[in-house]
């Protein structure tokens, strides 16, 4: 009798828990059944499962797909199931004898499919895999890339020979010396660059620098940053291009606002009108600007000698020591000339060493990026080549302006060597065409792109954007030397403002168009691989 009472008490104790457990299980399966009863909901559920547990993206496939024919013919073993994965929800349904057409799953059907769904979480064959990329042949990577580099520098050389002195004022430094010569009516020496009208070079240098800045910003926003974070493989839309455009619109908006504010409140004019240690000479801003751009110390001519007002004159205290002071100055004149000559040679040597190291670092990074881009995709390689072409042309124009024709053209040869060296290093680092063994540790292309992005970001931030501002200051210098009317000054300001914005947008638009073209063909290649395997992907329905 006591045993019966114990059983009765235990039953009363555990009965509510048993009922609650059964009820919860029934509610759980009922909830699942409501959400995945048809094929569309079941397919979406399976994709979300791979996405949440295996970090799959919309453009990914499984690393080891199951062959459905083997499952249907019962031609498999346990190890095959443990290391293979159902690539699509349709494959899972077919393997279990369900037809995806007019699918209507019951709760019992869901219970029978649940083990296969849960096994997906632990199956190593379900890890994500990008669509395979066909490696380019040896010629397309190595020979084609080297031809690209040589052709780039050969075109630079031809342009420099044809354009002559005109290409030497594409930087604000060259234009500063042009304005200085124009203001002083000084004829340059034979080794220096001769300049035609300043206004023409103001337009040429301003437009080319704005275009180069636009190309760099567009390449960074539409090509490098998306591939650094593998954004094109996250989804199948053009969203990342739209976001990059919004970012550039923000940059462009603040650029316009800053320029309008400078014009409205005459910031540049106020800066140039500040007294310079009591010097009232109108040429002081010209000389300061040219010295700021490091263009005066590499020539034998010293612009400070053209006007006596550029330097303070030490007057004798009394009439008695006039002869003594004059004699002392005459005795010190040879010493000053010797010191000036030695200082000039030292500064020139330092300037050359600086440009050798600067060009070496830039060309090595650009060469690595070019080889990485060509091994990734030809169109991305062309975009990077176009960016290197414009930035390199601007950089060598500065060398021609600062060092003269002989040294400037000599740097072109070193630039070719540095670019080829960087290209070879980049090819080895990325393991182009998998020439090494599978145990070789390759550096992913995303890290090479990151390095190139850092270099371009620094160039745009430190060099190009300040250079665009320098052209605005050169405008005010030109106004001062020409004594233009207020109406002409305003017209020239508007002209510079329009040139900056138009060519900046033009460079960005070229990068944007190339990004859209690349995205179109990238979507097409993914569709050709995935859609025959899984026609129910969202981008395969259009």
TrEMBL record:
One of its GO terms (cellular component) is plasma membrane. The chain crosses the membrane at residues 7-29, 141-162, 202-225, 237-257, 408-426, 447-465, 494-518. GO terms for biological process: intracellular monoatomic cation homeostasis; zinc ion import across plasma membrane. It is a multi-pass membrane protein. The keyword Protease does not apply. GO terms for molecular function: monoatomic cation:bicarbonate symporter activity; zinc ion transmembrane transporter activity. This is Uncharacterized protein. It comes from Adineta steineri.
């Amino acid at each position: 009798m006591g045993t019966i009472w114990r059983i009765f008490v235990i039953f009363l104790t555990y009965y509510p828990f048993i009922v609650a457990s059964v009820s919860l299980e029934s509610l759980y399966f009922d909830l699942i059944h409501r959400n995945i009863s048809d094929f569309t909901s079941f397919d979406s559920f399976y994709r979300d499962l791979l996405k949440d547990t295996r970090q799959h993206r919309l453009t990914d496939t499984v690393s080891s797909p199951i062959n459905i024919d083997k499952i249907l013919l019962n031609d498999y073993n346990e190890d095959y199931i443990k290391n293979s994965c159902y690539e699509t929800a349709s494959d899972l349904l077919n393997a279990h004898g369900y037809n995806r057409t007019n699918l209507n799953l019951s709760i019992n059907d869901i219970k029978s499919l649940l083990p296969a769904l849960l096994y997906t979480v632990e199956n190593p064959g379900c890890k994500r895999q990008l669509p395979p990329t066909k490696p380019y042949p040896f010629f397309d990577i190595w020979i084609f890339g080297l031809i690209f580099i040589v052709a780039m520098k050969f075109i630079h050389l031809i342009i420099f020979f044809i354009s002559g002195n005109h290409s030497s004022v594409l930087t604000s430094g060259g234009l500063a010396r042009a304005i200085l010569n124009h203001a002083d009516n000084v004829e340059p020496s034979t080794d220096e660059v001769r300049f035609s009208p300043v206004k023409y070079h103001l337009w040429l240098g301003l437009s080319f620098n704005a275009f180069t800045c636009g190309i760099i910003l567009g390449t960074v926003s539409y090509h490098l940053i998306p591939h650094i974070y593998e954004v094109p493989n996250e989804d199948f839309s053009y969203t990342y291009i739209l976001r990059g455009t919004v970012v550039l619109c923000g940059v462009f908006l603040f650029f316009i606002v800053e320029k309008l504010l400078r014009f409205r409140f005459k910031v540049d004019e106020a800066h140039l009108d500040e007294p310079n240690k009591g010097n009232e000479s109108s040429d002081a801003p010209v000389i300061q600007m040219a010295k700021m751009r490091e263009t005066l110390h590499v020539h034998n001519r010293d612009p400070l000698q053209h006007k006596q007002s550029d330097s303070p004159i030490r007057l004798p205290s009394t009439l008695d020591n006039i002869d003594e002071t004059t004699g002392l100055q005459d005795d010190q004149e040879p010493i000053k000339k010797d010191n000036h000559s030695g200082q000039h040679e030292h500064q020139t040597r330092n300037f050359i060493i600086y440009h050798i190291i600067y060009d070496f670092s830039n060309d090595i990074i650009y060469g690595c990026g070019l080889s990485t881009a060509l091994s990734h995709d030809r169109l991305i390689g062309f975009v990077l080549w176009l960016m290197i072409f414009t930035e390199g042309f601007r950089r060598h124009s500065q060398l021609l302006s600062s060092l003269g024709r002989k040294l400037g053209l000599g740097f072109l040869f070193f630039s070719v060597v540095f670019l080829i060296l960087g290209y070879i290093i980049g090819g080895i680092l990325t393991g182009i065409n998998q020439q090494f063994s599978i145990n070789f540790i390759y550096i992913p292309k995303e890290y090479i792109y990151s390095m190139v992005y850092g270099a371009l970001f620094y160039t745009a931030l430190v060099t190009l954007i300040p250079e665009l501002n320098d052209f605005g200051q050169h405008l005010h210098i030109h106004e001062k030397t020409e004594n233009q009317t207020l109406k002409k000054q305003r017209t020239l300001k508007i002209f510079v403002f329009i040139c900056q914005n138009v060519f900046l947008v033009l460079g960005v638009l070229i990068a944007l168009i190339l990004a859209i073209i690349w995205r179109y063909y990238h979507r097409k290649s993914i569709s050709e691989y995935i859609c025959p395997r899984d026609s129910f992907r969202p981008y395969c329905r259009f």
